[in-house]
Design a protein that fits this description.
- The protein is mainly alpha-helical and 298 residues long.
- It has 14 helices and 2 strands.
- The longest helix is centred in the N-terminal third of the chain and has 30 residues, at 2-31.
Length: 298
């Protein structure tokens, strides 16, 4: 009899939480928006399992928000929830809505490779073999960041007629991240053929930095040390060209261990004088030729 009372008591205690979850998602159906205040309460109560069923809702926005909350729960780093969150986000890559698929891949990039179980890593590897992968680039980069896909991607590169040039470039980036020597050299050769300028800094340099390979980071350092003014100013009211080195400095800052300048979440250096910071960074790299690269982040 005592056990029955305990079970009933626990049931009553859980009712408000379930009601809050229902109210949170039903609020969107009624008002067209989600309550931020209620969202914070749900995350604090840590009722991860209550939001999972909403990932199968027929309304895209509700499924999307369910996966977002899954991601937020996972970031709390509680072991069991963390693993379940990652697994559920991986399942979201099979969603029929491509925005949800893309979001799930981006969310997964926020977790450390050590947080993925072996079955989760195997699942990511298997996703590379899908013929209908809209988010080809981000999925392959995610796989290589997690340390999987080496054999799969090597086999795919041999299928010359199946993948276009952009896809093959992404494959080489992924293999370079995995330490494949031929792909590292391939990426370097491509980089050396592109003239210094906006496209190089906007597209090529971020890709090279993603690989975390010293040969390719050293190429980026050549741009950092260049005094050629070949890039447009981020200020649209300024027509004159500026040093491409400034943008490269922003991209390098987060991945170099013990770097003297911090990087803000918005993408800018936390410095008052960019010119002074550039000179300081050049001097720092000159004095630290054995700089260490942080490969623990995406």
């Amino acid at each position: 009899m005592k056990n029955i009372y305990i079970i009933l008591l626990l049931g009553f205690l859980c009712l408000p939480v379930h009601a809050q979850v229902d109210d949170y998602f039903n609020g969107y159906k009624i008002n067209g928006n989600f309550s931020f205040e209620l969202e914070q309460q749900l995350l604090q109560k840590n009722h991860f399992l209550d939001i999972i069923p909403f990932s199968s809702d027929t309304i895209v926005a509700i499924r999307q928000q369910s996966y977002y909350l899954t991601y937020k729960f996972g970031l709390q780093r509680e072991l069991e929830i963390n693993e379940s969150s990652i697994n559920h986000l991986i399942s979201g890559i099979d969603d029929t809505n491509q925005t949800i698929v893309g979001n799930c891949i981006l969310y997964l990039q926020s977790f450390s490779p050590s947080e993925f179980s072996i079955p989760a890593l195997q699942r990511i590897d298997s996703l590379l073999q899908s013929d209908n992968q809209y988010h080809f680039r981000e999925l392959y980069k995610l796989a290589a960041y997690l340390g999987v896909g080496l054999e799969t991607i090597q086999r795919q590169l041999l299928q010359k007629d199946k993948y276009n040039n952009n896809q093959r470039w992404v494959m080489h980036l992924a293999l370079a991240r995995l330490g494949h020597a031929k792909s590292i050299q391939y990426c370097l050769q491509v980089a050396e053929q592109i003239a210094e300028g906006n496209d190089q800094v906007a597209y090529l340099v971020p890709d090279l930095i993603y690989t975390r390979q010293r040969e390719l980071i050293n190429y980026c350092l050549e741009i950092l040390n260049s005094n050629e003014e070949n890039c447009s100013s981020p200020n649209p009211d300024i027509d004159t060209k500026i040093l491409c080195a400034y943008r490269v400095l922003e991209l390098l800052a987060p991945i170099i261990r013990n770097f003297p300048y911090k990087h803000s979440p918005s993408g800018y250096l936390q410095v008052e004088d960019y010119q002074k910071a550039l000179y300081g960074a050049r001097e720092w790299f000159f004095n630290n030729p054995d700089y260490q690269i942080n490969s623990d982040t995406f």
